[in-house]
Structure formats: C-alpha cells, structure tokens
C-alpha cells in the first residue's frame, strides 16, 4: 500500500515534469528550429561548395586536355601549310629561273638579232635626221612664204597710199611733203611716189548745159512734127547742186586693182633683187 501511494506520487510528479518540459520545449521550439535550419544550411552550403569545387577542377582538367589537343592539331596543320607554301615558293622560283634562261636563249637566237637590231637603229637615226632636215626646210619655206606675203601686203598698202597721195609728189619748182630739203636722201614714200604711175581720173559724164531763167539757148532745136524751128526761152531754174562723180563699174575696179597688184609685185621684186 505504501508502494502504491509512493508510485502515485511519482506518477503525479512525472506528469508535472512532463507538462513542464513540454511547455519549455514549446517555448524554445522556434529558436531551436531556426538554429537547426542555420546549421543545416551551413552544412549543405559547405557540401555544395565542395562538390562545385570538385566539378570545377575536373572541368579545368577536361578543358585543358581538349584545348591542348586542339592547339597541337592546329599547329600541325599550320606547319603543314607553311611547309607546302615553302615548297611551292621554291618550285615557282626555280621555274621562273628556268623559264627566264630558256626565253632569253630563245629570244636571242630566234627573235632578236643583235647586228640586225643595230643596223635597224642606225637606219632609224639616219631616217630621223633626214626627216628633221626636211621638216626644217619646210618650216623655213613656210616662214619665207609668210614673210613674202606680209611684205607683198605691206607693199600693196604703200602703193595704195602712194596712189592716194600722188598729188604730194615733188616737182622741179617745189619739193613735196616727203622730200624735205633738210634730209640728205629722199624719203621712202617719195621714191615710191616716183615709181608709181599716175592714173588719170575718169572724166565726168557729159550733162546738158543748164542756163538761168530768161537766157535763150544758142542752139535751135528741131522736133519732128513741127513746121518750123524757133528760138525758145529756157524756163528751167539754175541747178545749184554739186555735180557728183560718175559711178565706177566693177570692170573698172578690177582693172585698177590688177594694175596696183602688178605694180606692187614689180616694186617688191626690184627691192628684193636690189
């Protein structure tokens, strides 16, 4: 009986302790949960970081191996290409040398003859000199022709002026404008005036004589149909207008021009020969 009471007391104490501990556990559960979560997260982070570090090292090993293999293959390909290029350059250089020697030999033997080339150049020089001489002669002839034409034109101009100024020619009684007594020799225009022939001007056309009003004519006019002739008085007024020179025809102009040209040529020839 005493044991039963003692057991009941222990059960009651155990119940109180249980509820107390449960209450304490409920109060500390959130803190413990947060602490557990922090510990687990830290542990898992360490575990993941270690795994990632392991993977990174293995990836580096793989990449290093592959890159080394690819680089060695690329270098081998570059060496092959460089060796092939070197062989082709050597082959081309040797081919160029052989072709140069062969073409030089072929050209010297079958195409270009040294002595024929030398003769051709000498003939070209001679022909060039002849052509230059001919061109110089042609140029000189053209220059002389231009000078001759200019001299003829100038002489024609002087002769024309001499025809216009022929009235200024010197006479025995009085020297002309171009023959000054203070000159030792006559002027060039004076000599030209002496050489040029004087051209007589064409006579004026004959016109009927007009009389003043009231003066009878001295000529009896006979008209057919009239029975007798009688003196008539002129009823026309005196014409005070100046008489104009006759109209020069084309034939007269051509004749004068030809005469002047012939005289200019003769004077120029005399001057040239003298």
Automatic annotation (TrEMBL):
Q: Which Gene3D superfamilies match?
A: 1.20.5.190
Query: Which Pfam families did the record assign?
Result: IQ
Is Coiled coil there in the keyword field? yes
User: What keywords were assigned to this record?
Assistant: Coiled coil
Please, which domain of life does this record's source organism belong to? Eukaryota
Give the signal peptide range: none
Which PROSITE patterns would you find in this protein's record? IQ
**Protein name per UniProt:** Spermatogenesis-associated protein 17
Q: Which organism is it from?
A: Crenichthys baileyi (White River springfish)
Q: What is the lineage of its organism?
A: Eukaryota, Metazoa, Chordata, Craniata, Vertebrata
């Amino acid at each position: 009986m005493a044991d039963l009471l003692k057991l009941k007391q222990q059960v009651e104490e155990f119940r109180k302790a249980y509820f107390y501990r449960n209450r304490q556990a409920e109060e500390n559960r959130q803190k413990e949960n947060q602490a557990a979560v922090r510990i687990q997260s830290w542990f898992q982070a360490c575990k993941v970081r270690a795994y990632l570090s392991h993977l990174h090292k293995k990836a580096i090993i793989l990449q290093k191996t592959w890159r080394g293999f690819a680089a060695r293959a690329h270098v081998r390909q570059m060496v092959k290409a460089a060796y092939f290029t070197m062989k082709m350059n050597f082959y081309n250089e040797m081919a160029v040398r052989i072709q140069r020697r062969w073409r030089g030999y072929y050209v010297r033997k079958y195409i270009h003859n040294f002595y024929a080339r030398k003769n051709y150049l000498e003939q070209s020089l001679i022909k060039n000199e002849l052509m230059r001489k001919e061109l110089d002669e042609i140029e000189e002839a053209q220059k002389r022709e231009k000078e001759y034409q200019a001299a003829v034109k100038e002489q024609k101009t002087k002769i024309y002026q001499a025809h216009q100024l022929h009235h200024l020619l010197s006479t025995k009684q009085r020297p002309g404008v171009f023959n000054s007594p203070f000159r030792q020799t006559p002027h060039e225009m004076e000599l030209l005036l002496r050489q040029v022939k004087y051209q007589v001007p064409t006579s004026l056309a004959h016109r009927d004589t007009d009389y003043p009003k009231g003066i009878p004519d001295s000529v009896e006019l006979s008209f057919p149909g009239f029975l007798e002739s009688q003196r008539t008085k002129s009823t026309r007024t005196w014409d005070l207008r100046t008489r104009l020179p006759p109209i020069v025809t084309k034939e007269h102009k051509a004749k004068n021009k030809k005469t002047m040209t012939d005289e200019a040529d003769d004077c120029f020839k005399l001057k040239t020969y003298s």
